[in-house]
Amino acid sequence: MEAERLQRASSPALDEILGQQFNVLDRGFIRVVDYMGNDSSIVQAARVSYGKGTKTISDDEGLIRYLMRHDHTSPFEMCDIKLHVKVPMDAWRQWIRHRTASVNEISSRYSEVKDERQQTLPDAWRLQSKDNKQGSKGYLEQSLGENLTINELELQQHAQQVYQERIDLGVAKEQARKDLPLSTYTEAYWEIDLKNLIHFLTLRMESHAQLEIRSYASLIGEEIVSRWVPLTWQAFKDYRLNAIKLSAQEIEIISKLIDPNRVSEEYLNSLAQQQGLTTKVERAEFIKKVRRITGE
Amino acid sequence: MEAERLQRASSPALDEILGQQFNVLDRGFIRVVDYMGNDSSIVQAARVSYGKGTKTISDDEGLIRYLMRHDHTSPFEMCDIKLHVKVPMDAWRQWIRHRTASVNEISSRYSEVKDERQQTLPDAWRLQSKDNKQGSKGYLEQSLGENLTINELELQQHAQQVYQERIDLGVAKEQARKDLPLSTYTEAYWEIDLKNLIHFLTLRMESHAQLEIRSYASLIGEEIVSRWVPLTWQAFKDYRLNAIKLSAQEIEIISKLIDPNRVSEEYLNSLAQQQGLTTKVERAEFIKKVRRITGE
Amino acid sequence: MEAERLQRASSPALDEILGQQFNVLDRGFIRVVDYMGNDSSIVQAARVSYGKGTKTISDDEGLIRYLMRHDHTSPFEMCDIKLHVKVPMDAWRQWIRHRTASVNEISSRYSEVKDERQQTLPDAWRLQSKDNKQGSKGYLEQSLGENLTINELELQQHAQQVYQERIDLGVAKEQARKDLPLSTYTEAYWEIDLKNLIHFLTLRMESHAQLEIRSYASLIGEEIVSRWVPLTWQAFKDYRLNAIKLSAQEIEIISKLIDPNRVSEEYLNSLAQQQGLTTKVERAEFIKKVRRITGE
Amino acid sequence: MEAERLQRASSPALDEILGQQFNVLDRGFIRVVDYMGNDSSIVQAARVSYGKGTKTISDDEGLIRYLMRHDHTSPFEMCDIKLHVKVPMDAWRQWIRHRTASVNEISSRYSEVKDERQQTLPDAWRLQSKDNKQGSKGYLEQSLGENLTINELELQQHAQQVYQERIDLGVAKEQARKDLPLSTYTEAYWEIDLKNLIHFLTLRMESHAQLEIRSYASLIGEEIVSRWVPLTWQAFKDYRLNAIKLSAQEIEIISKLIDPNRVSEEYLNSLAQQQGLTTKVERAEFIKKVRRITGE
Is the CB of A152 less than 8 angstroms away from the CB of D162? Predict the structure, then answer.
């Protein structure tokens, strides 16, 4: 529409940390290599879709929160970020299952694998959770952990020596690597759009995600996304990370817990305002939800 | 794992209606052409993932509901369905925005376009909604609608005559079509996996979806998915279609509506059981949610 | 790897035209809104994958050509571009079939549709091709075309008047639009990575693509991609746009056309060098192909 | 279009081997679990697209070959196959990079990992290729290989013992697995449509693909796809696997190798017919290619 000379959208707070290495685990890291777009790019794309319709939502923050709340996710695809990550193969196996990203991983067919593994400290061996078949809970006592740590180091050294022996004999790198431990670090460029990054963070910052990948996800969220697109980051926390979903059955039950004396329009409106539901639209939506719960 | 001769998974209730035409709008339809998998295929895929871990959830229904509740969506990708649809281009423009499907649409570069448009009856002209910039609410009075219907027919005939004139003069079909109205019907084969179909239904069965595409989506849900994968269909309704989400702020507010005398473990458990939270796991999850709401 | 402060990768030649409107058809346009990456970003991503392995290919140009030649497409995903396009719905229907892009289209549910259609001039009516069922060849004589142009304008005005009448009576915008002609212009933000853009250009710059979308694709290629990533653009033309593929059977036939006196190693090498196969690797690959053709 | 009762499309030759285990490597396998569609489904989808336009290509084989030759790949998306695979994690790391498939992998967070690794026999240690940085060429002499095989077994036993020790002490499975060797077998359900499977086979049956994944890919092609969709399989071999591509520069060079006395229309036509270019369309396309090469 406008025809004047454009500058690329930028995010000064993210520019501040471009290329800077954030450490994760014992030898892993994350660095922002490049990015496209900022909070305003999301608003701009949404305004294309909605045209004049967006005038009712007066400001950028309100619009971004509206988009997040209603799962209108396409404008978030208009932002992209490219990270350089170093991560143990074990965590990378989970990471790579997110298919909607672009990846260039270092190839151990081309290059010799570096002698770098993730090592677990004596006090960091986690116990199998009893109620969660796939989780951990609490830590092994340190005296036992010390042994495990020593044994791990020995195994990792053994694996490295076997790898090196093969390389020295001229075995192809693609085959020499076949018995490397999953704790071996790999590196990759990983590029993803903000919509899909939000989905990644929703799953991987969640308390059931494995600690290792959760450490990476939390860092991406708290150190990177928070700087890059602060309005989106806040909306993500409010409407995704810290939200809960009630099923049809749970709605029925909750209705029975509610004190019927506290659901007047006026009271709900005043509570909503107190709790930061600043737009009229959001307050109306909330009251509608309450009415759905209470069945009126 | 097993090595015996397999039969393909089938869904007898869906086989009953294979190829049968379900009418939508004035000339549109949906037909199931082919499919792969059934409720058990989802269970089977999940059991591969979880291995022995699934033994705790004793039956297929419980497992499917667990998957849906926790957004473990990958097992639903193991079912696919192929539909033959006939739909006005206007609705098709929305439909095709769902990118995770396979499409073969009839090409109007190859074949002449049939003289078939979606016509609106005098009592079916919807009024612009006041509060929803993109929606409709109520109907135009019929006396006015009659005029609109006559004028529509006239325009559609005019467009057809212009199209035919071009064809008769030897104009290329790819160009002759350029002024056809969006109400013109098109046909396509549309294939999608169940995970993505569920996402499509969530968005398009929703009350804010435009009536036309909502008619197609509802039919796919109620007539087709309900027969094909009945356990999944029920879980979809309970955990998606009829669920609500509470933001971090809304959780705070709801906490103030709850009667503190009604949240004892015992009472919650008995309510949960009454309302059909049949598994211990789901009841525990529910009580956890209540505790998150009440902040204990 | 490096830890110093980074700047975002940029493409000065593309910065020059950021936001500038390139006209297409009678009222369409394309503008670059934002982008990420440049030729060096592709090289950088490839070097991550190959590690030391890339040292043998000495320069960026050689590496980019190698990647394109061998369909190692993932490094091209590391560049993204966002365009603002204005295009008739008819061409947009084809455009949107490319699923691996992000789209925010102006919504005619939210906003009234502007009275803008693509009009065909008297000398621009194309004749149906005889041998290509889906193509056009040559033009209708202008005297006949004049009539078609007048009739088109009349139909477009008729459609506009019907649309306006509905709007004036308060019909919902989502329904009022249902008989708009496919020649109506729409606008969108369209974001795509370079790998998928190359695929789009391969299909849509091709001589069988419909003239309208071909006009957009050619402009994107020649005015935008050529400035943005000039090395990639040249490689695209050499290895995709102007390449040909020979089937197993065609290889057999070609072998019978080749003069056996002209396939000595030396001669082939000298020809290859003359024709700009500058790297040793590419010349060796070429000679291998010739040997496959001649069956030696 | 037709309204009669349908049966699902089936492939009797594939039904014969449904569930049957094909062994790969020392302990790996592939089994077909389910599928949708057959060669006719591709034809059916293409005929929807082309409408009457397909009448000129008289038979199914001709049409499928036409689609493959012209990269009209969307009809191939109308067929899907679901495989149960057992594969070393090392090969699985490459496999999983194909993002357009659905996957349910056995989770080693849920279940203990079985003591099963891919072992390399004394005569199967491959040497690093000199000219191909990422490949192998020839084999290590067996006397040296024997040592490597013994050392591998020792390392694998060591790793297993470390894993078991952790499990026995109550360490969480998600953490206990962290030093397992990449040679450890994993299992998964893998579902993919035929278009994307063809792409997978093109890359992974190719001579530069690593032997291990090439073994799986070749088996999928030769034992499974060949039975499932025999016409597509033949077309794949002719137009993809055994085809070659000539760049703009290579076209120039080839033109200089061609004997000008052998390119008459008549001669080319007769050669084309002899070599099995059975349709008139394909012969015409071929002659056009020759003219492009010779620059006439």
Answer: yes
